């Protein structure tokens, strides 16, 4: 199953490393990643990830929410279909 991970917040060292490590530890493969820093202070990142059978979005979300709180960021994971439905024009 494909999912989208979004990360938003003030830029700081290690965001990509910590999010990637959290996903790796849950057995999740990152298939694509796009990140940018706006006005030298706001970090944004989107990742397309592949959750193998048996990996629960809810379990991963709990791990990502703990990381989000630690780093002061907003991190979300959504099934690809939900993400696409929310962003149709």
Textual characterization of the structure:
This protein is 37% helix and 38% strand. It contains three helices and four strands. A four-stranded antiparallel sheet has the order 2-3-1-4. Helix 1 packs antiparallel against helix 2 (57-71). It is globular. The protein starts with a strand and ends with a helix.
Helical element count?
Answer: 3
Distance between the termini: 24 Å
> Compute the gyration radius: what is it?
13 Å
Helix amount, in percent? 25-40%
CATH level-4 homologous superfamily: ACT domain
Structural class label: alpha+beta
Largest sheet: 4 strands, antiparallel
Q: How many beta-strand runs?
A: 4
Q: Biggest sheet, strands in spatial order?
A: 2-3-1-4
Can you summarize this structure?
This protein is of the alpha+beta class.
List keywords for this structure.
89 residues; four-stranded antiparallel sheet; single chain; 3 helices; Alpha-Beta Plaits; alpha+beta; 37% helix
Question: What order do the helices and strands come in, and which of them pair?
Answer:
Layout: E1 2-10, H1 15-25, E2 29-38, E3 42-50, H2 57-71, E4 74-79, H3 80-86
Antiparallel strand pairs: 1-3, 1-4, 2-3
